[in-house]
Amino acid sequence: MDFLEALSRPPLVLGVDPRPGLHGSEPLVHLRRYTLELCERLAPRLAAVKFQLAFFEALGPEGMALLVELVSGARVMGLPVIFDGKRGDIGSTAEAYAEAYLRRFPGSALTVNPYLGLDALKPFFQAAAESGGAVFVLAKTSNPGSGFLQDLSVEGRPLYLYLAEALAQEGEAYREGPWSRVGMVVGATYPEAVARVREKAPHAPLLLPGLGAQGGKPLKGEGLLFSASRALFYPGGRPDLEAAERAAEGFLKALVE
């Protein structure tokens, strides 16, 4: 499996942010069953499944074991996987993160934080190239306070756009066909930012969180992956397979028509 194949699938990403309190008296048992069944039902409608690492880490060793089991299940179904960990560090630590989530799971993607500079990102880029994976670098995030740093003016343009230009140039070394393995995270809550990043980085896959609960709007264009978590994993605020299928259909209708 090569992660770039996700870009030829329907553009919807299922965000898995598990809340054990919604899963009854045996939460991990029910959570496992619910997630695998949901992935199976939605598989033809999905580009990928995004696992938010924090929610699994919060469950301790059992949560991490569950994460590996769910990731393995998604991959068996032919679904590309995104590890949403926003990792970022220097030297051997970056190498270790890259080993853990890219080389250990070939064909998967990882979200990373660029705050330490481009040199700290190169181990992730190299691991993605070697493993058939991808890296999504935080550029313009979906949260309301993202502009505190990301909108600061740098050489006459917002910091996120300065970063996008640098990543686009860096990503050319990791391009295979029309797409680079160096992608970016740009919130669907900021459609103008999406358009500006796409203009500067035409070959970068863009992961667009915020669809649904955060109010992100469907946009048109190639190489866009729209992530919905609460609105798709817990439609109506609870586990509901049928409602999730309806939500997926509604999102896709808005995205592709």
From TrEMBL:
Reaction(s) this enzyme catalyzes, per UniProt: orotidine 5'-phosphate + H(+) = UMP + CO2
Top-level EC class as recorded in UniProt: lyase
Residues annotated as domain Orotidine 5'-phosphate decarboxylase: 11-247
Matching Pfam families: OMPdecase
CDD domains on file: OMP_decarboxylase_like (cd04725)
NCBIfam families: pyrF_sub2
HAMAP family: OMPdecase_type2
Entry protein name: Orotidine 5'-phosphate decarboxylase
